[in-house]
UniProtKB/TrEMBL annotation:
Protein name: Glycosyltransferase RgtA/B/C/D-like domain-containing protein
Keyword Transmembrane helix part of the UniProt annotation: yes
Keywords (A to Z) from UniProt: Membrane, Transmembrane, Transmembrane helix
Membrane-traversing stretches: 16-33, 106-126, 133-151, 180-196, 202-225, 237-259, 297-314, 326-344, 356-376, 383-400
Amino acid sequence: MREIKRNISAQSKRSLMVYFWIALSILLLFMYLPKLTPQRVGDGNEYYALYLAWKETLRPWMNDASYQAFQQLYQSNTISGMMPEDWLRGYSPALRLRDESDFNHFWLYSFLAFAVARFCQIFGLLLGPHTAFLGLHFFLVTGVAFIAYHLYGKRGILVFTLMTLFSPMLWFSDKVHTELFTYCLTLAGVMLVYSRKYTCAALFLALASTQNPSFALIAFIPFAFRFCLEKNKPFSIFEVFMMIGTAFAVLAHPVYYFLRFGVPTPQLLAGGASLGGNLSNFYIWLFDPDLGLIPNWPLGILLILLAVSLVVKNKSFTQSLNTNKYFYLFSSIFLIVSLFANSSTTNLNSGATPGLARYALWYLPLLFPAVLYVINNFPSRKVISYPLALVIAIIGYASIKTNAPSGPEGYDSPSWLSNAIQLKLPWLYTPPAEVFKERFSGLGETSYENIRGVLGPDCHKLLIFPGEHKELVTVPARCLIDSRSLGSLINESPLPLTDTFYNLSDSQYDQLMPKVTPGKYSLATSGNGLFALTSGWWTPENWGVWTVGRTATLTLPCTASQYYADQDKIDMTLSLHGFGRQKVTITQDRKELFDGHIEAQGDLPLRVNIDKCSSSRILIKIAIKDPVAPSDVMQSEDRRKLGIGVYSFTLK
């Protein structure tokens, strides 16, 4: 008996040491995060403000005292991107009650950060608003890691690491936004459902519903499983308390807003949602190359493919389905409810993200069983396992670099995959009009009421917006099309009633190309030669334009209507200067046109090959060996890498 007790005690100590090392490892990451410059993203103003409301007034709404505290935080300049008090006061006018105001997002997330700050204060640690949220994130991540180890041992920790550290979720680790909060609680709920611990799973999912009410419906599923599938099992006192907690968590959001404003959720007053308004685009949260989870999680693609191949090899699908059929029912309802909820947003391409849509991350926890299956059935033969582990490590490292917390937001330009599809295979996929406009126009979420059309990178797919008195047309630099001519072509045709995609014919495209004549073409702001700036250029200035980094490209149209269409060569002169002494190589079709140093302002003659316009465009590539930022040489605070500045080009 003593030997049994001794063994149990030794096992408990080993287990406690594992928990200790898990917490310490996560703590090391969170000790690094405060060294990064805090940046406000998305709805961060609201969460900081509600934190201060709890801290200053012990109230879950804003009043004059909490607004003053927020203004002090804004004036401290400790968090980049913050908005001033008067902007915040006018943010949600529908959610005001006399001198008090609420926001579209619930206060529990901010309250938990406030609770962490008060807890640390007991031990003499005074946390600022941003650090308090980092402390909350530490407890959330550590708690879910503990659950993963408790349920699935060291393999559970490995799965949790792959899904959290090697995914876009890493970017949110230091962002005051509810994505990490939702991910941690939802992942805990999924793991517990998969382990048939239904009561505890319902509680975690109910807590997630405080910030996203649709999770209340999902939380009901494991709650119902406990009553239906385990009806003969007696309830423990612990389960009773968890059920009470689940009920309170589910009701907290709707009851609070109903008592304050007479509605179950603030979106019904302040806007931001239209039930099922974008249901036809439900697939984008999973598969859209810009917004979707799968295309933006390369490691996830690899792990899913490995899971499928291992299931086929082991012939274990039928057995797995029989033993986990209720989990698959839960997953199906999770998908249906979440896709409907996400498709009810009126803002598909929202910010506060490193690239993909924030809503896409809701579906990340559902992949836990697949990743766990891969880890449990990982090939044992070294000849396969070692190279495979190396590939996973390389992809994981690339993911960390891409989704590093220090990186900026990224929702106003296409992903490399999205750009490749629209450039080479535009017929393969057409995204929603909002996504196409904001990713390919260069305008981001900026609302331009006078925008008439957006031309895609293939130079043929055109998005046309209806309405009167609209003139703005955006054209990619590589397309060599005059935006004013394209706008005239659009307005000459009957305009559609809704946002419509149209495909320009080759003849239309040729007609829209600029007609080049001999003469001088300025590259200054609004210059007549800007059509030639294809890639590698900063925004034109009132004198000309700087190259970006090490490479830049100039392009000339080469169609039958051009004056040089029947010639073999033409003379071209670049008027330019270097930022310092720059080593420059200029090539065309890998043939060298110039190789030397450029420093002072002057003219550089080039002999350009035309070859009777055998190709539709002439590409001239400029390579700069060592571009320099003005800040590096103490000339100014400009951090752009500058190589050469080009004033104009002349065709003879």
